[in-house]
Every structure is written in structure tokens, then in C-alpha cells.
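Design a sequence for this backbone.
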């Protein structure tokens, strides 16, 4: 019965994935809102108890499904970005200035702010830190309404001109991997104990070493696959010539797997792979074909996760939610992230230069820090490493925050960005 129900939900997700984007169009109601709503309604029906909804009993399933969803989304994000990152050119780094500010200033502030709120709510330090780390990143999966639309190729190639969309897209591509060191800090605090026993290892390996390994491995995979796809002397291997877009799936799986095997952060490996591949033959239409394949798979996985999440909300996921969890979730979305993001975006490149944001654009980039599937993955992963972190209250609070973000940001994204674009 369980397998049959999973097929039913997967089939419904596939159907909705095909019709919702066109059906909703430019309305101020996003597909994630509809999917969560449909899930809520299904959860209120006499649906047999067979779906794997209990996060404690099905932690491993949740971890792997959300993990796959995130890495597929990261591949799509990396392929969608038209603005190159050229390490040897200072102006290229400056064009990414808002991204670095959100990563290096806003995200640590969000982690610290939510961790303090969690500690105030009575959580153990390790659990409070995990709550902050899991809820800090802007999610690449649910942020499609505020991200760039896809790669511009052929005669239409242009550099990213919508700074808000570029900033949020690039931030989402990088911060999932960069939140992992703080998830590991929570795990070490829960399993090892005193900070003095693990801080040096955390600083050298988890904060620096695994980041470097992940980026280097992903870059190597992307460069190798791009060389084969575009420049191989063997015609059968030049898949770009015949538009074999399934290479995108092979690339993301290979980059993630190899990054993890080598000890790095696989999320960063996937994004680095996509960015490196995108830098090769930038005007080639093959990039758009690869992005289309990844986008379709991402849409299916995302809608499946959201449909199940909606069902879970009315089948016990929020049983442990109390006013403290509601206060922390809404406090993050309405106060902590907007203020941390706005503080991080003070200054920046001069007008008429890439990376410059106007005042309203800075507030928009600060506000639309969407929380989503990545938060569920981090909690599921950490819960598998320590029973201290497998707390029902954490599941309820993070589940509530994700749904609140889906509703709040999903309703506001279209009208806010449309207004910014009209004022540009």
C-alpha cells in the first residue's frame, strides 16, 4: 500500500508540474503555494496511513530525497547564470560583490541570530546552532520566482542585467554548501562535547578544507566534461553537437559523488561543476538544452516534496510546534534575514557598474531569503548523526518556517520584482 500511495503522489506531482507554470502565469500565487495547499487538503481526507510522513521514522528517506532535489537545483542554478566569475579579474569579483556580502555577512548573522533565539527558547547549544545553520541559507529549490530565468545563448547572450535576480540566484547556488560547516559544528558540539576539543579541526577542515576540495573537484569535473562535450576529437563524444542534454544529469551526479568521495562538500562541487561547464563556449545553445532537462527534473522533485510536506502538515508534522517556534520562524523571515541582508549590502559597486543595487533593490535582495528544501535536508542529515539533534520540536519549527516562507515570499515575489523592473 505504501508504494502504491507514493506512486499516486508522484503521479499527481508530475501532472501538476506540467500544468501549473502555464496555468499560474504571472499571477501572484506561486506553484509551491498551490502544491502545499493541495497537500494540506489531501492530508485532511481519509487518505490511508501509508505515506512515509513521520520524520523520525523516515529520516533517511527524507534526507536522500531532499538531497537529490537540492543537487539538481544547484546544477540548474549554475547553468542559468550568464555572468562569469573569472578569478584572475578583480572586476569580475566586484560584479559578484552583493553575493559575497550576503554569504560572508548576512548568512553568519542569520545563523547567530537564529541560534540565539533557539537558545533563548530553551534549546541545547548544539540544537540551537543546528537550527540557525539549517534555516540560514537561501534555498535554490524554492527560489525560482526570484531567480534568473535561464542561460541566454546564441545571438541573444547578454550579461545578467537584473541585479536582484542575479544576487539571489548566485547566493542560493553557493550558500547551501557554505552552511554545511555550521551544521558540522552543531554535530561536533552534540557528539564530541567541549568546543576546545574540536574547534581547530572544524576551522581547518570543515570550514576551509572541505570547501576548497569541493570547489576544486567540481571545477575539475566541469572542465573535463566541457572539454569532451565541446572539443573532443572523437565525434561520438562531442555530445554538444547533437544536443544530448542528459549529460547534465551525469555531470551533477558525478560532481556530487566525486566531491563527497574526496571529502569535500558535494553541494559546492555541483555548483562549481555547472559554473565551469557554463564558462565553456558560453554562446552555445547546448547550455540552454541542458538547463531545460535539469529544470524539468527539479520541478518534478520539488513539487513531489512540497505535496508530501503539505500532507505531513496535517498528519502530525506540526504537533510539537508552539509559540516559540512560530516566533523564531516569523522572526527570521520578517526581521533577522531582512536586517542582516540590508546590513550586508551597505555600499557596493558604483552605479552603472555590474553588481550595483539601488536602495529598493537592496531591501528586496535582503528580504527574499527563501527557506525551503535545503533546511529539511540539513535537519535530516544532522539528526542521523546524533540523537540530540533528532528533536520533534526542531522538525515542527523548521517545517513551519519553510511553509511560512513559501506563502510569504510566494505571494510577494511577483508584484515586488515587477515593480522593481518597472522602476529600472
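Sequence:
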Amino acid at each position: 500500500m505504501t508504494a502504491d500511495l507514493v506512486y499516486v503522489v508522484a503521479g499527481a506531482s508530475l501532472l501538476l508540474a506540467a500544468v501549473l507554470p502555464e496555468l499560474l502565469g504571472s499571477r501572484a500565487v506561486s506553484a509551491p503555494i498551490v502544491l502545499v495547499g493541495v497537500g494540506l487538503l489531501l492530508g485532511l481526507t481519509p487518505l490511508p496511513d501509508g505515506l512515509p510522513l513521520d520524520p523520525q521514522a523516515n529520516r533517511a528517506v527524507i534526507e536522500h530525497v531532499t538531497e537529490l532535489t537540492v543537487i539538481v537545483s544547484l546544477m540548474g542554478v549554475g547553468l542559468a547564470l550568464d555572468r562569469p566569475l573569472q578569478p584572475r579579474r578583480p572586476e569580475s569579483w566586484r560584479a559578484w560583490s552583493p553575493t559575497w556580502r550576503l554569504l560572508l555577512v548576512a548568512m553568519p548573522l542569520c545563523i547567530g541570530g537564529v541560534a540565539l533565539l533557539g537558545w533563548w527558547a530553551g534549546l541545547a547549544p548544539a540544537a540551537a546552532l543546528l537550527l540557525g545553520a539549517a534555516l540560514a541559507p537561501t534555498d535554490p529549490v524554492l527560489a525560482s520566482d526570484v531567480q534568473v530565468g535561464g542561460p541566454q545563448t546564441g545571438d541573444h547572450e547578454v550579461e545578467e542585467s537584473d541585479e536582484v535576480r542575479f544576487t539571489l540566484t548566485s547566493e542560493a547556488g553557493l550558500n547551501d554548501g557554505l552552511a554545511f560547516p555550521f551544521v558540522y559544528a552543531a554535530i561536533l558540539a552534540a557528539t564530541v562535547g567541549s568546543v576546545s576539543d574540536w574547534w581547530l579541526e572544524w576551522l581547518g577542515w570543515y570550514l576551509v578544507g572541505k570547501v576548497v576540495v569541493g570547489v576544486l573537484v567540481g571545477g575539475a569535473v566541469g572542465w573535463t566534461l566541457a572539454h569532451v562535450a565541446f572539443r573532443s576529437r572523437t565525434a561520438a563524444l562531442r555530445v554538444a553537437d547533437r544536443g544530448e542534454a542528459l549529460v547534465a544529469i551525469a555531470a551533477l551526479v558525478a560532481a556530487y559523488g566525486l566531491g563527497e568521495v574526496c571529502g569535500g562538500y558535494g553541494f559546492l562541487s555541483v555548483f562549481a561543476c555547472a559554473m565551469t561547464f557554463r564558462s565553456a563556449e558560453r554562446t552555445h545553445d547546448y547550455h540552454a538544452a541542458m538547463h531545460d532537462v535539469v529544470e524539468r527534473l527539479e520541478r518534478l522533485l520539488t513539487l513531489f516534496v512540497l505535496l508530501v510536506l503539505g500532507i505531513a502538515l496535517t498528519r502530525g508534522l506540526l504537533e510539537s510546534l508552539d509559540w516559540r517556534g512560530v516566533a523564531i520562524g516569523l522572526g527570521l523571515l520578517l526581521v533577522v534575514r531582512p536586517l542582516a541582508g540590508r546590513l550586508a549590502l551597505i555600499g557596493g559597486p558604483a552605479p552603472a557598474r555590474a553588481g550595483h543595487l539601488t536602495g529598493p533593490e537592496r531591501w528586496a535582495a535582503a528580504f527574499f531569503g527563501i527557506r525551503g528544501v535545503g533546511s529539511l535536508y540539513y535537519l535530516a542529515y544532522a539528526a542521523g548523526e546524533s540523537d540530540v539533534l533528532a528533536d520533534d520540536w526542531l522538525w515542527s519549527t523548521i517545517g513551519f518556517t519553510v511553509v511560512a516562507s513559501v506563502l510569504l515570499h510566494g505571494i510577494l515575489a511577483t508584484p515586488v520584482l515587477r515593480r522593481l523592473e518597472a522602476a529600472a
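The CA atoms of residues 59 and 200 lie 30 Å apart.
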